Prior knowledge:
Layout: H1 2-10, E1 24-26, E2 32-34, H2 40-56
Antiparallel strand pairs: 1-2
Amino acid sequence: MNALLRDHVDSGGTVDLAAALDVRVTGPAGVETDLDLTKKANRLLAENAALLVLRTANAMDIENLG
């Protein structure tokens, strides 16, 4: 990923980066729960949910190693 980013920026491109510090999910019956982002499974859930939303909306080109 680093090489892709460097090549893109070196050729004059721009990169948008987003970081989530807090994530809340809504489960059955509308119960909201904050995810503990120190847990890998929770980080993966949050990342994949965000990627799904962006890909479904065709919001932007997305490069992801996962």
